[in-house]
Design goal:
The protein has 179 residues and is α+β, with helices and mostly antiparallel strands. The protein has three helices and five strands; from the N terminus they run H-H-E-E-E-H-E-E. It has a domain of 64 residues: Copper binding periplasmic protein CusF (OB fold (Dihydrolipoamide Acetyltransferase, E2P)), CATH 2.40.50.320.
Length: 179
Amino acid sequence: MKRVIALIVAILFVFAVSSVAIAQEKPAAKPAEPAKPAAKPAEPAKPAAKPADAPKAEKKADDKKAEKAKVKQVTGEVAAVDAAANSITVKGKKAEVKMSADAKLLADVKVGDKVVAKYTVQDGKNVAKSIKKAAAKADKPKAEKPKADAKPAAKPAEPAKPAEPAKPAAKPAEPAKKP
């Protein structure tokens, strides 16, 4: 009888431990979906374009590349300005970004200025689109200053006095004596 009870307890223990382990397992990743058939059949080959059409095709490709080029932004301090090479280096929170820029963009920028520079990557090089000086601490709201016409307190308020302990109750008056 003891063996039967010990066997049942052992089986219940194994079941309890395994159910907890199964509950903690992450679900298996979904299997990859089978390839979908092509929506359009392949188009037949087109005849070779005329030589005059070739530049137009190149311009369209360049326009598409320009549309795909994302404008990036870096905010930070100007680390270096090279007017001869028309380049600027901005030290942002994550990294230093070196970019080429027009002389117009570099005219008012000095080393140490806080700037917001927008640029794109063209042919592996960063090209500045705009460089603006950042407003000094304009992003953080300032705490309210006390009004000038408010009078300062003459002296600080005193702390409240502690309550006095309760007085013992007065003895009840003695009954009047009868004459």
